[in-house]
Fold this protein.
Amino acid sequence: MAETLNVELRDEFGKGAARRIRAEHKIPAVLYGHGEAPLHLVLPGHETALAARNSNALLDLQLADGTSHLALIKEIQRHPLHRTLTHLDLIIVKRGEKVEVDIPVTVTGEPVAPAISVVDLQALTLSVDALHVPEHVEISVDEKVDGDQVFAGDVTLPAGAELVTDAELLVVAIQIPRVQEEPEAEDAEGAEGTDSEAAEEESSEQE
C-alpha cells in the first residue's frame, strides 16, 4: 500500500536553500519519469524517514493544488555521519505498469552443521507490478549441506514477478568454514634455533 505524503513544490535552490529546508525537518527531493519535466519537491521529514525504512517504498505524493503522483524511491542520499536523509530521487509510476527494482535477499533457516550459508548476491533485480513491489525475496537453506548452491534461476519469485538478474549468478553458497592452521611448534623451534646459531656466528666474527 502506498504511503501518503503531503508535499510542497520547491522554489528555492542551492546549498543554502537545502540547508534551510533540512533545518525545518523537511527533505528536498526530485520527481521524474514518464517523459515529464522533473518536479522539485519538499517532503515532510519524519513521515518520509519512516516510509524510507522499507526498500522500494511506494509513495502517494499529494500537492497543495490537488494533483497527486505515485512514486517509488529510486535513490536516497544520507548525511555521512548522522545517516539522516538529505535528498531523495523519486520515479513516477503508473497503475498497471511494471518496473525493474532491486529486491533484497533474505535467507531463512539453517544448513546442516557445521556448514554455514554465505550470501554472494545481496539483491535480485526483478520486473514487478509497480503497485506490488515485494519487500524481499526469501531463500530457505534448511537441510542444505556443504557444497550446495542457490543460483538466481533457482529462487522462487513472488507471484507476477520476473527475473531480470542473470539466472546463472550465484546467490547463496553453503560451505564449512575453513580454519587457518597454526604453524607447528617444531617449525617454530627450528626457526628459533637458526636465529640463535646466526647470532652466535655473528658474535664470534666480531671477537
